[in-house]
Specification:
Radius of gyration: 20 Å
Largest sheet: 12 strands, antiparallel
Strand content: 35-45%
Distance between the termini: 25 Å
Shape: globular
Structural class: mainly beta
Number of helices: 1
Number of strands: 12
Oligomer: single chain
Length: 196
């Protein structure tokens, strides 16, 4: 049960403005509750770097689109990446195209914010990948500051070829399901608290 009351309006705001604010709040509450048979809207959850622990927070299913694209002369493979713990997809926050934009998991929405182009690299005995954002070709997944610490943030950053942007896929035993391990640190992409 929600009880409503009236208080003095700060800054002498008028009643129509206050009622408009109340209506917005009620609509947001109804959306969150899934009123009218609509699914509950869940907030996005942060993606971080963390010591490999074999939990589903670190397991990702690669859903390939079947499309390829040339980026800087290299064939890249379209993929949407779903976290097994949360059921959400790797997503560029706010569909921003600038350095430092946060990487999160978010319910599937089919936008380019959730589409990556996987550039596979084989160099002598090394195999790794860069994950380019479909929002802007030269922007890739990156460990902020090249950090090796647990909890380091995953962000979008202009490709620079450093180990902070190189990832290997380690199979979990399930089809097209992998741990995504950063080459620089040996630690895995991890959804904060499993996205719950």
């Amino acid at each position: 049960i929600i009880e409503w009351g009236f208080v003095d309006a700060p800054g002498n705001r008028d009643c129509p403005t206050i009622l408009s604010d109340v209506n917005k709040g009620v609509n947001a509450l109804l959306t969150a509750m899934g009123v009218g048979g609509q699914p509950v809207t869940t907030p996005p959850v942060n993606v971080q770097l963390y010591q490999s622990n074999s939990t589903k927070a670190q397991q990702f299913k690669f859903e390939y689109t079947g499309k390829t694209k040339k980026i800087n002369g290299k064939t890249c493979y379209g993929v949407r990446i779903k976290n097994l713990s949360s059921g959400k997809y790797i997503d560029v926050a706010g569909a921003e195209k600038k350095n430092g934009t946060n990487i999160q998991v978010h319910p599937k929405n089919g936008t380019d914010a959730q589409l990556l182009w996987e550039e596979r690299v084989i160099y002598e005995t090394d195999m790794y990948a860069f994950f380019h954002s479909a929002l802007k070709d030269n922007m890739v997944l990156d460990v902020a500051g090249g950090s090796h610490a647990n909890g380091s943030n995953i962000q979008l950053f202009e490709k620079n070829g450093t180990a902070a942007q190189k990832f290997t896929k380690v199979g979990t035993g399930a089809e097209k399901t992998y741990y995504i391990v950063n080459v620089g640190s040996g630690k895995s992409l991890d959804v904060l608290n499993g996205g719950k």
